[in-house]
Amino acid sequence: MTFKGAVHRATGSRAVRFIARAGYPISGVLHLLVAYMIARIALGSEGEADQAGALATLATEGGGAVSLWVVAAGLIALAMWRLAETVLGLHPGESADAHRRHSPILNRLKAFGLALVYLAVAVTAVQFAVGASRRGSQQTAGLSARLMQSDGGKTILVLTGLVIAAIGSYYVHKGASRKFLDDLNLPGGRLITVLGVCGHVAEGAVVTAAGLSRIVATYLSDPARATGLDGAVESLGRAQFGEVILLLAATGFAAYGLYSFALARYSRM
């Protein structure tokens, strides 16, 4: 059996699809936690408004280590499904010959990018579960500072900033054009459509800001600005009407979190 054939056989398993779907509620919980922290920052409290901050919050709760391992397992399951889509194309569980069909390379790249995101957050969850507690923004700033010491490192930072901004822009487009409805196995009702539009647009806008902030930080040689999602939230909070902007962002992240719960049932696999 070929490698693609083996992957196709795995995606045809109902148990595998069930396990992959279980990752969506995990993603939803993380988005709700990020939304909560953005709202707190908007109202004057301190915190880290990104996935690392959400995981740190889980780590401080009772049974935190168990929760973190559950988060890691769910995200790894989603990552494995995205890697399968990287090999076979989108929605391989719907096709009896997914291993033989032609799939656009762009779709495979999108799946691979999502797999990397899920794996990165899963690794962070494992780090917290085994006792690591360093802020994600500190890690990012430290790495950025080292990269800014050379022209090659600056090039890497600019390129990653462009990629992040492109991903964010795609999410905005996907939400505004309602293309996310193509990922569902039923016609989108009013509630799911509203959650999907608000969630994709808001998250995409913040992610785009994070990518642009990394580029600006590289130009200014200021690693403190290149701290990813958390840095973007801080920058938006300092803008005119920053409190309102952050509350809108929090609402959008919460909407995407609720949309993720719907994906657990209605996502095409």
Strand content: under 5%
Shape: globular
Structural class: mainly alpha
Number of strands: 0
Q: Helix proportion of residues, in percent?
A: over 70%
Number of helices: 11
Please state the CA-atom Rg, rounded to the nearest Å. Answer: 19 Å
Number of domains: 1
Uncertain runs are none
Order of helices and strands: HHHHHHHHHHH
Question: What are the key terms here?
Answer:
single chain; 269 residues; mainly alpha; 11 helices; 75% helix; 0% strand; DUF1206 domain-containing protein; DUF1206
Summarize the entry for a quick read.
The protein is an all-alpha fold.
Task: Set down the secondary structure blueprint.
Blueprint: H1 3-11, H2 14-21, H3 23-42, H4 51-60, H5 64-88, H6 105-129, H7 136-147, H8 151-176, H9 190-220, H10 228-238, H11 242-266
Pfam family, one: DUF1206
Domain DUF1206: 22-87, 111-177, 199-266
Keywords: Membrane, Transmembrane, Transmembrane helix
Written overview of the protein:
By secondary structure, this protein is an all-alpha fold. It has one domain (3-266). The protein is 75% helix and 0% strand. The protein contains 11 helices and no strands. It has helices spanning 3-11, 14-21, 23-42, 51-60, 64-88, 105-129, 136-147, 151-176, 190-220, 228-238, 242-266. Helix 3 packs antiparallel against helix 11 (242-266), helix 8 (151-176) packs antiparallel against helix 9 (190-220) and helix 9 packs across helix 11 (242-266). The relative contact order is 0.15. Residues 22-87, 111-177, 199-266 form the DUF1206 domain. It comes from Mycobacterium deserti. InterPro entries: DUF1206. This is DUF1206 domain-containing protein.
